[in-house]
């Protein structure tokens, strides 16, 4: 019986030792920091190129412009001042993978290969849910030599394109 | 007799230590996954002007958002520029930007832009938080465009920090 008590004491000493190590790890641990590179060219400027609009929702990138043979993913409502683009119902539920940035076969990578960066710049219309991913999107676009502009939109705000509105330049 | 008294006590101690250790391990693992994210902004001068940063965001319990001048001067390369930024920050502080409603703060901010902002030395770079999208579009963007001030802007998620450095400066 005394042997078992001795083993118990050894176990306890070992456990206390582990606890002390964990306690020190807790106190002296270094904060985990992840660095994300921001854009380098700061000022918005106008360039003599055509633009190609992309909507950013979460980590999905959807082409708004239906030129270049891309399917229309938006219903267009004509107004006196211009037009409103409304995303087709359940688009991301039905065809999410097609727009998923992390899918290398997604339409975004197709656009980067197909468009000529000396003729076009990309304009991202970014919803708040896409803020976490935007810097990654831009990094890839710049790797493909594209100039990039962006403008924020509220989560449910309609995409309005007005002839009286603001031109979005590159940054 | 000895083991009948000692063992339950030791078992209890072991159990308590085990539970405590488990909590610490869980906490360490969870904090490992919730790493702090820092957006490293590498700004550059523009026609000899240096960037100053304004954050658009909404505070809790606030109906509309604020535009807040970032008063961190460390990235500026010389004493004069640091002093100029300091003066601009002091002006906003003295005017009580932090003590007024968001609506009044925008009147003060416009006043600052028209009277105190040194547009020959600085340009404005806006960091837009998700909660600040609306205020950027309704207030700051039209205000800066009205005054023909060149600017840049960048999205930054709500919980990210940022660090600023100038290209070419260490």
Explain what this protein looks like in three dimensions.
The complex is a heterodimer of chains A (171) and B (170). Chain A contains four helices and eight strands; from the N terminus they run αβββββααβαββ. Chain A is α/β, with parallel strands linked by helices and 171 residues long. The longest helix of chain A is centred in the first third of the chain and has 27 residues, at 2-28. The relative contact order of chain A is 0.19. Chain B is α/β, with parallel strands linked by helices and 170 residues long. Chain B has two domains: 1-35; 38-166, no CATH class. Chain B contains four helices and six strands, in the order αβββααβαββ. Chain B is elongated and about 80 Å long. The N and C termini of chain B lie far apart (72 Å). At the A-B interface, helix 1, strand 1 and helix 4 of A face helix 1, strand 1, strand 4, helix 4 and strand 5 of B. Strand 1 of chain A pairs parallel with strand 1 of chain B, so a sheet runs across the interface.
SSE layout:
The complex is a heterodimer of chains A (171) and B (170).
Chain A: H1 2-28, E1 33-37, E2 50-57, E3 60-63, E4 74-78, E5 82-87, H2 91-99, H3 107-114, E6 120-126, H4 131-143, E7 148-152, E8 159-162
Parallel strand pairs in A: 2-6, 6-7
Antiparallel strand pairs in A: 2-3, 4-5, 5-8
Chain B: H1 2-33, E1 36-43, E2 50-57, E3 66-69, H2 79-94, H3 102-116, E4 122-128, H4 133-146, E5 151-155, E6 161-166
Parallel strand pairs in B: 1-6, 2-4, 4-5
Antiparallel strand pairs in B: 2-3
């Amino acid at each position: 019986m005394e042997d078992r008590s001795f083993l118990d004491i050894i176990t306890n000493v070992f456990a206390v030792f582990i606890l002390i190590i964990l306690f020190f790890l807790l106190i002296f641990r270094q904060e985990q920091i992840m660095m994300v590179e921001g854009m380098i060219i700061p000022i918005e400027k106008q360039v003599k190129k055509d633009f190609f609009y992309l909507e950013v929702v979460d980590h999905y990138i959807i082409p708004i412009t239906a030129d270049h043979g891309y399917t229309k993913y938006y219903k267009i409502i004509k107004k006196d001042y211009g037009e409103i683009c409304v995303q087709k119902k359940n688009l991301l539920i039905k065809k999410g993978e097609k727009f998923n940035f992390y899918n290398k076969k997604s339409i975004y990578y197709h656009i980067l290969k197909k468009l000529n960066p000396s003729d076009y710049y990309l304009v991202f219309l970014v919803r708040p849910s896409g803020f976490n991913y935007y810097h990654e999107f831009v990094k890839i676009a710049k790797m493909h030599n594209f100039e990039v502009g962006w403008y924020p939109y509220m989560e449910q705000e309609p995409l309005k394109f007005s002839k009286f509105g603001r031109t979005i330049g590159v940054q | 007799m000895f083991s009948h008294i000692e063992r339950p006590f030791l078992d209890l101690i072991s159990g308590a230590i085990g539970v405590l250790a488990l909590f610490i391990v869980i906490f360490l693992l969870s904090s490992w996954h919730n790493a702090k994210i820092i957006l490293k902004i590498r700004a550059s001068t523009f026609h000899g002007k240096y960037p100053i940063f304004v954050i658009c965001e909404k505070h809790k319990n606030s109906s509309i958002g604020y535009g807040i001048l970032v008063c961190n001067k460390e990235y500026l390369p010389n004493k004069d520029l640091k002093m100029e930024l300091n003066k601009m920050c002091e002006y906003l502080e003295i005017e009580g930007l932090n003590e007024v409603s968001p609506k009044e703060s925008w009147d003060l901010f416009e006043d600052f832009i028209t009277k105190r902002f040194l547009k020959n030395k600085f340009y404005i770079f806006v960091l837009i938080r998700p909660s600040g999208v609306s205020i950027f579009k309704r207030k700051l963007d039209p205000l800066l465009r009205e005054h023909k001030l060149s600017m840049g802007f960048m999205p930054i998620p709500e919980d990210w920090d940022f660090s600023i450095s100038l290209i070419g400066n260490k």
